[in-house]
Amino acid sequence: MEIAALVSGGVDSSVVVHLLKEQGVEPVLFYIRIGMEEADGYVSCPSEEDIEMTTLIAKKYGCRFEIVSLHDEYWDKVVSYTIESVRLGLTPNPDVMCNRYIKFGCFEERWGKDFDKTATGHYATTTVIDGKTWLSTAKDAVKDQTDFLAQITDIQVSKLMFPIGGLMKSEVRAIAAAQNLPSAKRKDSQGICFLGKINYNDFIERYLGRKTGQIVELETGKVVGTHNGYWFHTIGQRKGLGMSGGPWFVVKKDIPENVIYVSNGYDPEAQYGKTVNISNMHFITDDPWGDFSDAVDITFKIRHTPDFTRGQLTKHGDCYRIESENKIQGIAAGQFAVVYDRDSRLCIGSGTII
Description:
Helix content is about 25%, strand content about 30%. It is an alpha/beta fold. Helix 3 packs antiparallel against helix 4 (about 95-110).
């Protein structure tokens, strides 16, 4: 079987290579360049260090190693989506889009098509039921990344391998240490890859500029501060408002008027809601519930967290609605609501919160 392994230079993808070799597989390693280039006015991601690490892994295990570039495609599909979403006052998730359109989209169309399977270092698993392959959660609930994979397609998931999905992160680290892998002690990457070391607000300001607006206390209507543009702020945000007498939370945005509404206190009621309306619902493998004549018991997430929330899913025309059992914090338009079965095992799909 011919296996392509997407590698990043980190400990997770390095252990993937080790595990594949243990199984007698000779993977071809691919590193995808997707970071911002100097031509864009920024220092790119630490790709040279990533490539150095991956080169050492390739030499250690005798694997063919290729560096491929999808920079232009990443800009078109992910960076532009991020900027436009922020301009509209939405909360984007670039990682979700990168997985669908770049790692398992453009890569597959150009290079992955020549292989039987593509292996990655994501914390996820797959489950085959009645001949269909379903995306399913990882053993390590804290590291589980199925929410970042919830926009991939049935064809993509059927071709993916997640060799570390059945391991705890501590086990992955232990394997890396035991095998003296060069990435064994390397820290996990944080933040959005294309930004590298660039501050997120600096990046957004370059494309959207600044525009002074009011910060208003939701409950009283009192102006309590000013901001430099609604696009710098997200629903549920606590830090970065620069206001005393806090904590203050962003709970609402008036996009046409450029007004940010906030609530004061450690747990203000205005942060919470129980209804999540979804458009563009995407089922990864299949819609397991059919006509939705009755409400369906599900679990779901609206942000990256190890915790699942119970609720019921109903269909209303072309849209869907989740009624949560418990109040949830920071429901923001543009976020992906990720839907799982009631046992929090299968990742069914995701839609955009409206």
